Amino acid sequence: MHLHASHRKRMGSRRWEGQAGQVGRGAARVALAAALVALPLSGCRRETPAPAKALIYEHPNYARLSPAELLIESQRKGVMGRKQSLRDVSRVVETIAPLVAQSVEQKAILADLQALAGRRPVAELREELRRWQEADLLLESGGDPEAVSAAGAVGVAQWLADTARRAGLRVDEREYARIVARARRLRAALSELRQQPAEWQRAEQPGGPPLGREQWIARYESELAALERKRLEADERRDPRKAIFAQTRYLVRLWRRFGSLDWALQAYHGGERGAERTLGYFLSEGGKSPVSFADLYFGTSPRKTPKTFSYFYGRADDHRYYAWRVQMAQEALALYRESPEKFRARWETLAPGYPMDRAWYPNELDAAFADVAALQAAYRSGRLLALPDAGESVVVETLAPLDPENERWYRGLRPEALGMLQRLAAIYREEGGRAPLSVCGATTTVEYAAREQTRGDAAPDGEEAPALTLHATGLCVDVRRPADLWDRKVLEYALSALGDRMRIAWLRDYPTNAYHLCPNPAFAREFVPRR
């Protein structure tokens, strides 16, 4: 179908993906340096000013959550904690949800719903469909009817052109382009007209009666209004009502075909053939039909189901998480409906615009390492432990090329971060990872970050450098993305095995081709490092 396109659109040219938010390590260190470079640099740790936080993140009672509930919880940051989350949730509730409520009542889906209902009331199925579809539209486009992805998916429901046509929507891309070009010229002409003096006149035709400025403005505005109607007729993907009604019909058909709405949304998000292949591989490796999405997700591993695993973990974007993200999106919409103020408060605790690190450790950067002397003191006190020089499971790259004389002092982590890395490496090895994991980022200092900034290691023009990673405290580690395809998939499985249980936050840092991970402080005692 549209193959994760809406997410590619929102990530932009500087892209990150993962369970717990977004950040780029190099740019983050620059931003940290910019905030702290004016401080005097001595051998002790310095107080680091941080943006004020209204509220502190409250950890749920993890022990009471089932594996599925933990996994859904792990998606909270990505759904509710982005900068745009408050705006998008508000837009879906206020402008998109009423259309979904109408759409699930359309007569065209009644026969399918009756076939699905069994002993359940059709009204109950409509309500279930409404919740799932609203949540999907939040993830697909943030409720924006003008959303366009890098892959060409368009509108609030992110339809690709061919799929939209099969679903009954008119898509005439040439006519749409012609209308848009004409509208652009009209807007330019209007802009020029409004700069003319009030007495300005011009004849419609040579020798004809002159028309005044306001008459011309009225004509152009009327034509623009007509073009807007024609624009939505030329590409109905951009008409929210038509796009949503078509999506409802399509989802109900997928529901009947795949047996559940989680599978229907997986097929809508990543393509019907993709869902069929995933199921086919799983059934061929011992899965029993019918297969719930949860059964497949938790039953897939490199060792037990290598074919299913290789395909499932080879899909682009966050496809394997989509059904879980939709369930978190339902929770987000329900919370906003209950109270916009409560939603805003929860949104603030998730540190929008920062990685999950910031929400879990809101004050940790107050104790950032200022310089190498501060690192040395941390090793003496046991606050930092040295990374192994080399081993079967982990190798360490050059971490401080701008300070080679002090390289060894940057090759360390806090105990819980080192334990996390060792646990990750163990899972990776147990599940068939071959090449050792390569650490490409560990502890840094404010002084070193200032050197990187002087060197010009900053975010591209027009992009905001995400600030405040915890590399300056020794709590984060970056692991290079393996060159081998199988090893990459197994490493993502190992990351997911920890992230799905909320033990860590991890994300992919595209500019550095690495994974950035940080331990959840609620489980720090689980990550006791091996000596």
How many runs of DSSP E, i.e. beta strands? Answer: 10
User: Please, what is the average pLDDT?
Assistant: 88
Indicate the radius of gyration in whole angstroms: 27 Å
- Largest pleated sheet: 6 strands, mixed
Amount of helix: 40-55%
Strand order within the widest sheet? Answer: 1-9-10-8-7-5
Oligomer: single chain
Question: Segments where pLDDT lies below 50 for 5+ residues?
Answer: 2-51, 457-468
Contiguous helical run count: 22
Structural class given helices, strands, pairing?
alpha+beta
Question: Can you put this structure into words, describing what you see?
Answer:
It is globular, with a radius of gyration of 27 Å. The protein contains 22 helices and 10 strands. α5 crosses α11, α6 packs parallel to α11 (240-258) and α9 (173-193) runs antiparallel to α10 (213-234). Residues 2-51 and 457-468 have low confidence and may be disordered. The two termini are 50 Å apart. With 531 residues, it is of the alpha+beta class. The chain has helices at 5-11, 25-36, 67-74, 76-80, 85-103, 110-117, 122-141, 161-166, 173-193, 213-234, 240-258, 261-270, 272-284, 293-299, 306-312, 322-338, 340-349, 356-360, 372-381, 415-430, 446-455, 485-499; strands at residues 16-18, 201-203, 210-212, 385-386, 394-396, 412-413, 437-441, 477-480, 504-509, 514-519.
List keywords for this structure.
two-stranded antiparallel sheet; globular; single chain; 531 residues; six-stranded mixed sheet; disordered N terminus; alpha+beta; 10 strands
